[in-house]
Amino acid sequence: MTVFHLLVYLSLLVFLAAVIARVVRIARMPIHLRWELYPVPHEKGRASYGGSTLEEVDWWTKPRQVDRIGELAAMIPEMLFLKGLWEHNRPMWFGSFALHFGLYLLIGELALLVLSGLLFIAGVAGGILDILLSLILILAWVGCILGIIGTIIMFYKRLADRKLRLHTNASHFFNLLLLGAIYLTGLLWVASDSSYAANVSAFFVGWMSLSAMPALPAIGYWHIGCVLLFFVYFPFTHMTHAFIKWFTYHDVRWEDQPNLPEGKMQAEIEKLESQIVTWAAPHVNADGRKTWVDIVSETGEEKKEK
Amino acid sequence: MSTQTKIEPKRITDISVPSEQLGHVDPQDLMPLPPPYDKIEELPGFKALTEQQRNDVEATFDDTICVGVPKPKSKEEEEKLVAAFLKGLEKLFSKENNWTFLEPLVLSMEHCARCQTCVDDCPIYEASGYNEVYRPTFRSEVLRRLYFKYIKPGNPLFKKFQHGDIELNWTLLSRLLESSYRCTLCRRCAQSCPIGVDNGLIAREIRKIFSSEMGLTQKDLHEKGTVQQLKIGSSTGMNALAVKDNVEFIDEDMTERTGIKVETKWDVEGADVLLLHNAGEFIAWPENPGCFALLLDAAGISWTLSSEIAGYDGVNYGLFYDDVQLAKVAMRHFEIAKKLKVKKIVMGECGHESKALGVIADRVAQGVPRETAMTLIRDIVFSGKIKLDPSKNDFPVTLHDPCNLVRSMGVVEPQREVLRYIAPRFREMEPHGVRNYCCGGGSGFAIMSQYNFMDWRLQIAGRKKFKQILDAFANEDPGPETKKYVCAPCSNCKGQFRDLFDYYGAKEKSGLYYGGLVELVVNAMVDIEGEFLDWDMM
Questions:
Q1: What is the ipTM of this complex?
Q2: What pTM does this model have?
Q3: CA torsion sign, B56 to B62 to B64 to B68?
Q4: CB contact burial B183-192 (16+ within 10 A = b; e otherwise)
Q5: Over the stretch B73-117, which tens digit does the pLDDT of each residue have?
Q6: Do B309 and A30 touch (CB under 8 A)?
Q7: Are strands B484-487 and B397-399 parallel, antiparallel or unpaired?
Q8: What is the pLDDT of residue A300?
Q9: B525 secondary structure, DSSP code
Q10: Which of A299, A302, A303 to mutate to test the interface with B (most CBs of B within 10 A)?
């Protein structure tokens, strides 16, 4: 094992640890008050116009119908094709889609590289590996070209569109530059190395089996360096919206689970309501001992006039 | 509006820089309205704040004041307020104090891409002529920077690089507080966010820090609102005796106008339905509770009102600014329903009441089952128990979708099914349903008129809706001869339409009237001779 092996593993480790920590942190957050936003796509037969079960008289007496296929039908176009942006911000969609889809294709390439590495280590040779190498080459070409187009458009928009510029930080440009560097070095590597697929695949085999890695063209090292930097940087940025979106949609926007007598939710809520509240405003009337439920049970009503 | 030159902040950080005023709207910049409302010089002006007002309270955000926080008397007092805010900020991100919205808030704080996709969906931003201080992401970004600077652990330099810096001082806080009351919490922007970031929630949570930690609240929502409701019985100031008097008069008037005996029931134990109106109806739109009484009796439903404290007022302004007040009011409503042993609570024609009690309170306590009036009205209309003649509603009708009822609850179709049946000249506004525009009176704005705030909410917050209404009737005779009915099944929205139509003279110029859904149902009843709707009184 070389320093380079270690560097790759270390970057991956940082990436995985930070991503898992973020997911666990969000997943462990307490249940919150309902704050859904319609349309909710799992509302069977009603999602198309944004309706809900609450449109039914005595809705609590009727079985709750949750359409998971409907959820998928809403989520997949959003994840893959940025449907929301297409509907609400078309001028930005073209650049953003290219930028994101380029990345998806490179992630696809990574997955195929891992697969081909595993197959190679397992002793598989010939046909299937050749097909995988061809696919890897195609994904690298298309992903990098799309990514470069997307990066240029987004960079230009951030600079030229006043609406965006006023709310753009230094990190937005850095993020674009880093992604752009990944795409550009990737494209230069693919374009300049006639054995790109074989080389990158051999690199993966060497990395995964802790054996010698092939000598790569200089641009290859630049590309890998940019990718590793991205791995280490990404989990600490807002770009984590890529997977946190699952929570913003499932835990908030589409989260409409009612608190019914037979359900388990009430016990969880009671635990939260037994926490001590320390808000300091006079009307809250917290004294350092009162719990949430103590406080909200005080009404301060005047004696009723008869 | 004053005649000073336009002030356009260039950066988020400008909010901390002391100046006479951060933002200013020039009437020329406002979104144009169609004729006859297109001539600025013929429209009511925008009252300028007086020197006295500017001296007394903080007024450096824009041309108006909503909260009106007294100016700190010394630097030390300012520093104390800043320190209190920081404590509040910390509590806002703690599960002990803010389990209620912690996850949605953190998700919105940490994952915004600043793509600004949401901004064009904001009717206030658009109506103001895209004024930077009303951009829905402006206040969100200020809170976000404060969150990363003071709350979220991490290397300060990295955080500054990632999210930008901001200077926390009293200038920023006084403006941030006012700015949180330039959003109606309609959440239309949240709907268009591809990531799921919610600027409406952020505005509400800013209000919460100031209210729950610092006791800085908007008077109509707090002192006159939830506090009065819990103390006396209603945010209108009516105690039980007064409301019973009002209702007695309403019953008599309804009986006289319809020829059908109307008698409201009070505190009937074991009734099927506890009807919970927004108490504003008893004063401002008495025919609404009157029509409910008539319809429920005609349909043979066992129902009651409650005369307990807060039992005759379904409003819950806590929804707009403070979880403690929200939960106190909701708990009270649940207690009353349990005490009366009713089978369910039906929430009257009030959007925020429906959302607060029907959805939000669901996780405050396991209460009595609740449903909105929309479903009940639909069932009554299609039950066959009441004979209806749609031709009695032979005038143009459009429907306003209250944000809380539609976008936040998904109650979209019942009211439409009714209108499609009883109003032959019903037409939709565009866009409608869950993509509707707020009336401009959301988040309690409709009850706020102190200083010159009413000018702001009618000229800017309600502008988009006013235009939308005019557009909905564009194919009708534009004059007042053709009476046009805007059906608004929400007390808060009706309050805004009342002020909006008065302000622009829309009744006289365009024949615009507004009212609820039940009034149209009663107007179509065969058993009532002639017309129930009294256009002169509307």
A1: 0.95
A2: 0.96
A3: negative
A4: bbbbbbbbbb
A5: 999 999 999 999 999 999 999 999 999 999 999 999 999 999 999
A6: no
A7: parallel
A8: 61
A9: B
A10: A299
Mean pLDDT over the full length of chain B:
96
- Nearest C-alpha neighbor of B459 from the set B41, B5, B129, B127: B127
> In the predicted model, what is the mean pLDDT of residues B435-457?
96
**Mean of all residue pLDDT scores within chain A:** 94
CA distance A109 to chain B (A): 25
Query: Please, is B64 exposed, middle or buried when counting C-beta atoms within 10 Å of its C-beta (0-12, 13-18, 19+)?
Result: buried
**CB–CB of B116 and A60 under 8 A?**
no
A-chain residues within 8 Å CB-CB of B194? 78, 82-85, 88
Q: Judge residue B52's burial from the number of C-beta atoms within 10 Å of its C-beta, 0-12 exposed, 13-18 middle, 19 or more buried.
A: exposed
CB A200 within 8 A of CB A224: no
**Partner-chain residue, chosen from A32, A39, A297, that has the shortest CB–CB distance to B100:** A32
* Candidates B90, B112, B115, partner chain A, best to mutate (most A CBs within 10 A): B115
In chain A, what are the helix, strand and coil shares in percent, each to the nearest 5?
70, 0, 30
Instruction: Report how many Cβ contacts below 8 Å link chain A to chain B.
Output: 286
Pick the residue from chain B with its C-alpha nearest to A234. Answer: B162
Inter-chain CB proximity A241 and B363 less than 8 Å: no
Write the residue in B104, B324, B331 that is nearest to A279 by C-beta: B324
pLDDT tens-place string over residues A105-140: 999 999 999 999 999 898 887 888 899 999 999 999
- The number of C-alpha atoms within 13 Å of A15 and in the hemisphere containing its C-beta is 15
Distance from CA of A114 to the nearest CA of B (A): 29
Q: Are B472 and B331 within 8 A, CB to CB?
A: no
Chain B environment of A246 (Cβ under 8 Å): none
Q: Is the pLDDT of residue B415 over 80?
A: yes
Q: Is B81 helix (H, G, I), strand (E, B) or coil?
A: helix
Residue B50 Cα distances to A218, B2, B47, B65, B125, angstroms: 70, 11, 9, 11, 25
What does the alpha-carbon distance between residue B73 and residue B358 come to, in Å, rounded to a whole number?
A: 44
Nearest Cα to Cα of residue B514 among B526, B504, B503, B500? B500
A66-90 pLDDT, tens digit per residue, is 999 999 999 999 999 999 999 999 9
Q: Where are the domains of chain B?
A: 12-213, 227-537
List Cα–Cα distances, B129 to A132, B121, B296, in angstroms: 55, 13, 46
Distances (CA, A) of A278 to A292, B69, B92: 9, 23, 11
**What residues have CB less than 8 Å from A167, skipping those under 6 apart?**
B12, B114, B116, B137, B141
CA distance B318 to B329: 8
**Domains with residue ranges and CATH for chain A:** 3-30+82-253 (1.20.950.20), 265-297 (no CATH)
Mutation site, A279, A293, A306, interface B, largest B CB count within 10 A: A279
Instruction: List pLDDT tens digits, range B494-509.
Output: 999 999 999 999 999 9
